[in-house]
Write a structure and sequence with these properties.
With about 150 residues, the protein is of the alpha+beta class. It has helices spanning about 20-35, 40-60, 105-115, and strands at about 5-15, 65-70, 75-85, 115-120, 125-135. It has one domain (about 5-135): Heat Shock Protein 90 (2-Layer Sandwich). The protein is built from 3 helices and 5 strands.
Length: about 150
């Protein structure tokens, strides 16, 4: 995980059809908090977030839904999806499937739009983490580098 976020968002109980809408709203709130993040970084990170959350909700639904944490530090964006339920085994190095394949693009897309992707099991919860390094370090309105607590 990169340095602690200076801005972040949290979505609890993420399950069902409204989950992705809530995650999109959390991303929009994050962008309002960190307007200095480059548009390309935003687009690629949000693609990764939606794919990761969609996979967790669809393939490993657990009681109470997933918790989604989004963060921005001086040099990176990160997402953590905590999905209760049975352990999942996923090939994080799976190649992109053929164009006519009905599924299997999620994890390869996350890998292509982030720098790191991990899946661990912590206290009975599947924990997905992805980090995207920023194209350019963030700067506050004052012009200096972002200060990370």
């Amino acid at each position: 995980m990169p340095s602690p976020p200076d801005r972040g968002q949290r979505v609890d109980g993420c399950e069902g059809p409204d989950c992705l809408e809530r995650v999109h709203a959390a991303c929009e709130a994050l962008w309002r908090d960190v307007p200095d993040v480059d548009g390309t970084d935003r687009l690629l990170f949000e693609t990764a977030v939606v794919e990761l959350v969609g996979n967790a909700v669809e393939h490993a639904p657990g009681p109470g839904g997933s918790t989604v944490l989004l963060g921005a530090s001086a040099d990176a964006l990160w997402v953590e999806v905590r999905a209760p339920g049975p352990p999942v085994e996923v090939d994080l190095d799976a190649p992109l499937p053929p164009d006519d394949a009905p599924s299997g693009r999620g994890i390869p897309l996350v890998r292509r739009t982030t720098d790191t992707l991990t899946l661990t099991r912590e206290q009975g919860v599947n924990v997905w983490r992805a980090v995207r390094s920023l194209t350019a370090p963030r700067r506050f309105a004052g012009g200096g580098p972002a200060q990370v607590p």
